[in-house]
Amino acid sequence: MLRTLKTLMYLLTSIALLVSFETGAFAAKKSKTLKKTQKMGFVRCGVSQGLPGFSNADASGNWTGVDVDLCRAVAAATLGDSGKVKFFPLSAKERFTALTSGEIDVLSRNTTWTLSRDADIGLTFVGVNFYDGQGFMVRKSSGITSVNQFKAGVSACTNLGTTTELNMRDFFNSKGIKYEPVTFEKADEVVAAYDAGRCDTYTTDKSGLAAQRIKLSKPNDHIVLPETISKEPLGPVVRQGDAVWEDIVRWSLNVMIEAEEYGVTSANADSMKSSENPAVKRLVGAEGELGAAFGLDNDWSLRIIKQVGNYGESYKRNIADTGILPDRGPNQLWTKGGILYVPPAR
Amino acid sequence: MNHRIKSIIPQLLTLLFVVAVIGFFTINAQLNMDERGIDFGYGFLSQESSFDVQFSLIEYDGSHSYAKAYLVGLLNTILVSVLGIIFCTIIGVIVGIARLSPNYLIRNTAAWYVEFFRNVPLLLQIFFWYYAALRALPLPENTEALFGVTYLTVKGYYIPRLIWENFDILVYSILAAVISIIFIRNYARKLQEEKGQQLPVLLISVGLLFIFPAITFVTGMVQLEVALPVLKQLSKTSFIYAEGLSVPPELLALVLALSLYTATFVAECVRAGVQGVSKGQKEAAASIGLTPNQILKLVIMPQALRIIIPPTTNQYLNLTKNSSLAAAIAYPDLVLIFAGTALMQTGRAIEIVSITMLTYLTLSLAISLLMNWYNKKIAIKEK
Q1: Axis crossing angle, helix B301-322 with helix B66-98, rounded to the nearest 10
Q2: How many CB pairs under 8 A join A and B?
Q3: Residue A44 forms beta bridges with which residues?
Q4: Among all residues of chain B, which has the CA nearest to that of A164?
Q5: What value of ipTM does the predicted structure carry?
């Protein structure tokens, strides 16, 4: 009796094992998006129409930025080459339709995670790659140094179809100030209108203000006011209904952040394979079978770190070194006083 | 019997085909939306919109519903279309007649205007007026007054606001004037037909339109206060004009671009219409002793209008649809407010786009109906 029970247990365990080995292949079969991406040979990534530090194309069409790096990470994980990304520049108005209609597979375009966007319109936010907040930019010569100095009749330029439009109303209403909203579809148009004196203030996410300031005719004549009037957690978005693809994008981001936490960089990733720390070994694919759950091989995370770098490298390269926001603020690791905290990759 | 079936079958097939195509697209959209977890419905229209609009003809703020936001956008679209149609007609008629002028300079200037403005893409012209022309305007604090009380600045065109008391009485007085004018016109026609006498109808009409409202002012029934724009300081270097009315520069640029562009087509319609009336008509009219003014009014124009109206209707429709380019320069029209911000905030792409398309269709049909009615009115009445 005991013997038969043991045999049965053995049998069950081996079946369970077999099944678990199968999940990898099963997942790949299940994720339509992954299959399609691998067939096409490139990741279709929606980005902004030009926001330095986040997603910006240079004269020869090379895209750089932290949002761009996320897409490159997904490409490195799924296709083995971070260069295999096709970028789709989208306006704020176009971005969600492009994603839900299947024109792109990842939207990495400084997009604020809100309840209604997440729950309502067929989208899923997978994480936060930049903690931001809405601020105001004004002319230095105006003498305004705080948002409390705005007076009735103030005109504010901003982007159409953004959370900015809603926050602005909440803010001015709470202060009881009548204001004139002037909304443009493209960020460049907003900047041009503000620059020409059409508006007294330009309001958007503070990172955006810092980045767009460079585009003004005389950047030093303008200041960003110290107050932050909203929470703007910016992060990548995928279509609802493909849980495996969602996981791939989520963990491509998480791996970049965790790599920084453990000091794994693009330069030392290979040598980290012989690290003493099992967490580090898992991160570079020397231990565990983390990729199998997504239907990827075990080097997926190593490729991300080697080809794109960890989050800190990406931030330094795109945002700090370009002079946009040298201070990482909340976008620092939780171990260093920031709020970047991701679930462990294990 | 055979004949009837033969004629019905193709119609039935066509109908089936149309139903199948519509059905296919509906089911396809339904399946795709189900798959992505998007639900469908127009319930969002009654929700609070929570965004503000720069410029509105009715009272609106973010605490009102999306339906109200739609109405704001619709009215702004109608406003820009009506203004555009009025100005393009005025400019078009003047330029069209100028193209037939015997004066070399006038004729060629008009020709150059037409060739230039109709061959540059409209969007480019809108950008030009908004970004190049209006941006060059001075800031409010450096602005010289235009006509003494208005200020054209980079932030908008500030004009006095009229505050009426008993405005309805004024409207009634104008109505009364219009009714009496109709009576006088009928009387004048009778007089002409019976006794051959002519009354100066135009002079009397203008006089009445002026006198009736004037009486309401003099008797104090209607009062008017004018709020002039007053310079107000917002911060050390930022000023606006308060108290008065502000016409946003976006509206100015849009009306300018739309009317200057469409006027070229209207001008061509007018020229074609006038040239389409045979020379013999004019000579015949002159030979029975009509004055040049009478010839134009009684002989040339009624015939020319028949040629002018149908193609001009097309231009009015184009102008209305082209007004949707407003979104490019932040003028809050239907496309910007409803198919832009509202779509983004709710994510209801199919619902909102369908409403917007239906709205433009209705607007176009309404203009067509109006113009067809007018066309019928001036058409030759066979006796």
Answers
A1: 140
A2: 123
A3: A86
A4: B51
A5: 0.74
Phi-psi category of residue A295: left, alpha or beta, with phi > 0 → left and psi -120 to 50 → alpha: left
Mean pLDDT of all residues in A96-124 = 89
Q: What is the pLDDT of residues A311-338, one digit of tens each?
A: 999 999 999 998 888 889 899 999 999 9
Spell out the domain ranges in chain A.
Answer: 25-131+234-336, 134-230
CATH topology of domain B66-160+228-378: MetI-like fold (1.10.3720)
In the stretch 204-263 of chain A, residues with CB closer than 8 A to chain B read 239-241
Gap from B330 CA to chain A (nearest CA, Å): 5
Tell me if A122 and B139 make a contact (CB, 8 A cut-off). Answer: no
Q: Which of A92, A144, A153 sits opposite B344 (nearest CB)?
A: A92
Domain definitions of chain B by residue range: 2-40, 66-160+228-378
pLDDT tens track for A225-250: 999 999 999 999 999 889 999 999 99
Query: What backbone phi and psi angles, to 5 degrees, belong to B185?
Result: -65, -45
Q: Which amino acid is at A106?
A: V
Please state at what angle helix B66-98 crosses helix B249-275, rounded to 10 degrees: 40
Radius of gyration of chain B (CA): 27
Contact assessment for residue B76 and residue B60, using Cβ atoms and an 8 Å cutoff: no
Q: Tokens at residue A311, please?
A: 């989050």
Amino acid of residue A346: R
* CB pair distance less than 8 Å for B52 and A155: no
**A146 at B interface, C-beta within 8 A:** no
The pTM assigned to this predicted structure is 0.79
- Decide if A173 and B238 are in contact by the 8 Å CB cutoff: no
Class of domain A25-131+234-336: alpha beta
CB contact under 8 A, B235 and A200: yes
**Beta carbons of B33 and A166 less than 8 Å apart:** no
- Surface of A (264-283) touching B: CB under 8 A: none
Given a contact cutoff of 8 angstroms between Cβ atoms, the answer to whether A198 and A37 are in contact is no
Q: Hey, what CATH topology would domain A134-230 get?
A: D-Maltodextrin-Binding Protein; domain 2 (3.40.190)
- Sort out which chain B residues have CB atoms less than 8 A from A149's CB and list them: 235
Q: Which residues of A touch B33 (CB under 8 A)?
A: 122
- Please give the distance of CA A172 from its chain centroid, rounded to a whole number: 29
